[in-house]
Amino acid sequence: MPRSPTHAPRTRIYRPTPRNLARLARLLQAGELVAVPSETVYGLAAHALDASACEKIFAAKARPKTDPLIVHICELAQLTTLAHAGPLAQKLAAAFWPGPLTLVLPKRPAVPAIVTAGRDSVAVRMPQHPLFLALLSACAVPLAAPSANPFGYVSPTRAAHVKAGLGGKIFAILDGGPCAIGLESTILDARNEQQLRILRPGAISAAELSQVAAVRVEDFSQTPNSNEVDESPKIAPGLLSRHYSPRARVVLYEKIPPRLASAAQPDEALLYFQKPPADWPRTDAHRAWLTDNNDQAEAARALFATLRTLDAQGFKTIHAELAPEGPLSTAINDRLRRAAASAQ
């Protein structure tokens, strides 16, 4: 495989044909980057056991090396080559993989320090998306893959989002269509099987994990001061106080009041959770919503794409509603709160 040219690459979106999958697998084996679809968001993948390849992820995203990467596998047997997984961790993996659950476990020496922010733990997941699984199988190596976007910006849920953010910085994007979930995976700290802790909420809830684990799973993602200082090496990704952020300022409400809708300025957008009534103020392009019928799965799929659309329209402020209580409200509101957090 020839060396990559030094000039900016021409970013190409590849259709998911067998020939293209084989080509992209060879690129990954050779230490190149490939943006890949998953059921959560698109990821920027590299050979997880190749420190030089993983360095390219941080360079392309302008990502601080204190923020670790998630390692993706396609077979349960691969887990024990990367991490020390006790009986409970293996039970959870068997129950929820492939799927949107990441386990943080003590790492094995094969995992490079750059993947783990120098810490002695590693985050591991088996994705559910058939194309990602097929690419992992074709590569026959684990792949490290954070979200395929400039660091801190809104996560990509379509191949076009990846090209908009990383075009000219990577060579290849595998198009797998829109992401089915649209939010990053639940991250579970399983280093201590007597103290399971959710670090980042996702589509798999604490209640679902507790039922399988037969022990209480605590949700630390909303605990005050549970995040470390932003400059310190993290246990897992998604723990920074400000993240998933559009260029526009985001202001949050339980419900957007009609008076605000009436008084909104031309550079202000209103992002409702559910489609507002027809007689609600502002019936023009300043309004957007995440779901027509209070469907939280629909809202989760739409969140990042809608934030990107409003950003592209040039709004300076997005007034956004939090999700009401429901199966995905914790995860949706976590992303909204981090998007709205002040820059450090």
Automatic annotation (TrEMBL):
Its EC number is 2.7.7.87. The keyword Nucleotidyltransferase applies. Keywords: ATP-binding, Cytoplasm, Nucleotide-binding, Nucleotidyltransferase, Transferase, tRNA processing. Pfam families: Sua5_C (PF03481), Sua5_yciO_yrdC (PF01300). It catalyses: L-threonine + hydrogencarbonate + ATP = L-threonylcarbamoyladenylate + diphosphate + H2O. Gene3D superfamilies: DHBP synthase, Threonylcarbamoyl-AMP synthase, C-terminal domain. It is an enzyme of class 2 (transferase). Required for the formation of a threonylcarbamoyl group on adenosine at position 37 (t(6)A37) in tRNAs that read codons beginning with adenine. This is Threonylcarbamoyl-AMP synthase. It comes from Cephaloticoccus capnophilus. The lineage of its organism: Bacteria, Pseudomonadati, Verrucomicrobiota, Opitutia, Opitutales.
